[in-house]
Amino acid sequence: MDTTTGPKSDPDQELSRSQRRRRNDIVEAALKVFDRDGYEAAKMIDIAKEAEVAKGTLYLYFENKSVLLEGVIQTAILPALEQIGGAAKVHTGSAQELLEHHIRIIAARQASPEMKMLIRLMISAPEQHAQLIRFFHGHVVQEGLELIRSTLRTGVESGEFRPDVADMDPLVLVGSHVYAPVWHNLFQDEGPLDIDRLVEDNLKMVMSGLLVRS
Amino acid sequence: MDTTTGPKSDPDQELSRSQRRRRNDIVEAALKVFDRDGYEAAKMIDIAKEAEVAKGTLYLYFENKSVLLEGVIQTAILPALEQIGGAAKVHTGSAQELLEHHIRIIAARQASPEMKMLIRLMISAPEQHAQLIRFFHGHVVQEGLELIRSTLRTGVESGEFRPDVADMDPLVLVGSHVYAPVWHNLFQDEGPLDIDRLVEDNLKMVMSGLLVRS
Amino acid sequence: MDTTTGPKSDPDQELSRSQRRRRNDIVEAALKVFDRDGYEAAKMIDIAKEAEVAKGTLYLYFENKSVLLEGVIQTAILPALEQIGGAAKVHTGSAQELLEHHIRIIAARQASPEMKMLIRLMISAPEQHAQLIRFFHGHVVQEGLELIRSTLRTGVESGEFRPDVADMDPLVLVGSHVYAPVWHNLFQDEGPLDIDRLVEDNLKMVMSGLLVRS
Amino acid sequence: MDTTTGPKSDPDQELSRSQRRRRNDIVEAALKVFDRDGYEAAKMIDIAKEAEVAKGTLYLYFENKSVLLEGVIQTAILPALEQIGGAAKVHTGSAQELLEHHIRIIAARQASPEMKMLIRLMISAPEQHAQLIRFFHGHVVQEGLELIRSTLRTGVESGEFRPDVADMDPLVLVGSHVYAPVWHNLFQDEGPLDIDRLVEDNLKMVMSGLLVRS
DNA sequence: GATGAATGAGGGTTCATTCAT
DNA sequence: GATGAATGAACCCTCATTCAT
Lengths: 214, 214, 214, 214
Fold this sequence. Notes:
The structure is a homotetramer.
Chain A: H1 17-37, H2 44-51, H3 55-61, H4 65-85, H5 95-111, H6 113-124, H7 130-157, H8 171-178, H9 180-187, H10 195-208
Helix pairs in contact in A: 1-2, 1-4, 2-3, 4-5, 4-6, 5-7, 5-8, 5-10, 6-9, 8-10
Chain D binds a DNA duplex through helix 1 and helix 3.
């Protein structure tokens, strides 16, 4: 006989439909409150109210505040980022086309509200999120940069790109895009970032630079 | 003028030499602790210990924790940023040289530890730092971008730059540099950012793009 | 009689066979957990798990935690004590033999695990167990002491015991035995109590004292 | 400059007069509340009110509830017990006199309110007080029993006591006295224990037993 | 001015109890 | 009847702030 108490007992699979919904409500409420107040200042009672459950209910689904944050990241943030990036691998074409594709993907990924919040959480309390940061660095940042890097090399090999760009730091190609979540966090009130225009301008510069051709 | 009240009464003028020193000790201690722990997690007692004063003394110089943070920003962070940027205005030369100069200045400014901390503080609690963010946006970000923008126009007018870069979003020219403080906050443990190489690669790309010239 | 209500309605009579079994499982589980953790620290969920029922089921049989404790005492503890003492009344013989018999009975009774637990529960929360304590005092302690007292008088009357022991406090005859449950609660880890030897030594002393006979 | 915060920083020596008084107030308040409610049920806020300080003040003097308990034991309970026992070592005389002296000392020690509370605390939560119990067993119980044991041997050697009492378990000589704190915890409402009479009766029995001398 | 002991509001967490299924 | 998810009162502890010395 299963006499375990709550949904916490089997964290991954065996939640009933209504429990999954409840868990999701909590995650979304937490996402909202963490996003609004930051992790430290966020109050469990506010998350509970936002999710329309009692305070104790939060602890049926998440061991404590820190685990709830992990849940938010695992359930709401990382999947959202991966979805965006999913298409990156199925493209073919010239190195220039490929590079353009990658840059567009990366820019789109950075523009998501999840990325905005992820950046905020990680910067707010890096010590407490060391694991998350390592994961993010390895699986989002480095992976994205590596995509650029390999495309640069492909382009050099194919003769499309100048030889000296083979070991260019990929960050210079996407710096303005990875900065987008920071902009969103800080300057949304001062005026939005025109992502599309940024992408086009970035591509223009990346491909041709600024100088007139002699 | 009333001189019977404490050092708080007139923040700029009426401090004795020793009071100014004391105030400075506190600001530096606060800078260190805010940087290490973040604003929310920073404890007043730790700042007091770091400054080698009693807890109550903090409140003789700063009304409360939030005001202390403002003091840190006004006293230690913003001046440091302006110092770096100070040289920006005294340059002459070709548009290309000028642009290179500005980019180098901006990159250097972003690399400073003060910028790292400023970004962290603002992102951690944007609501509480709305004023600061507005100031930062107006006097650091927009000013820097405007510098780039006007140089782009100058270069177009002088025929150095292609005509279509006149309206280019300046952020694409310095995105990887303004991202540096974020990188420092998050990924210092995973490996440093080679700022110098980033600048050179950035300049290379900015000027010439990646494509081989036909 | 109303039979629509649950098993709680009439604690003695109207339980089906399976309900009696269920009730017993709960009482035994509670006994174990109360004994292990103490009343305050004992968790209802642990008792439910131990009894292999759901938490809510506990409340079908016992109104609340306190009533459950009463149930444990009434159902499991007191009967066990009376069983041991049951034989006390059927003895005849010399006062010395009778006294020896009573002391052995009392010693055995005190050595039981139920007594250990009863003492712990009563001492942990005397205010909440005032009724139980009164019952225990009246029906176990005083009854036992009275048995000793009357035997002392019998022995004095019969000339077996010295006259001045007629109104001796009976506790001095069994103090080391009634202390046994305390010892078990506190010092079991430091080494067991040799009850049999204690009884023999006690009897030796009780009968003859320590002094050599002149 | 000493910028440490509170009196906790140097737990043993350097408390000012008023701090010592404050600490003592808290210990006494805690003693009272622990005694009244038991450790688990005792509330920090009640202790604070009893000591007429704010809740936070408790934590200036004691790290947490558990440490406060240790403080109560170290400061109020153990010294009280040792005071009573202090005289035990300075006695000389016949073995009989010595034994009587020791028994009186032990009886007096057990009768103290501190002992009552100590027993309650240890029995209520033995797992959490394992260290205290070991200390108590080693330094109070065994030491007391050893005193009896060695006196018995002395008496046997001197010919005062019968030879067969040399290995007698000392607990049988003082069982009714060490039971006293248990009695006080449980049965104070049902009638007090007449300690003096208990001691006299105990001595009478210990020396001469009950039987008439042939 | 400087100190640091004292304050007490506030937050995270636990767990006895309830009640819809 | 049986279940266990949900509830929310209660409690420990922290720490920004105050104020008597």
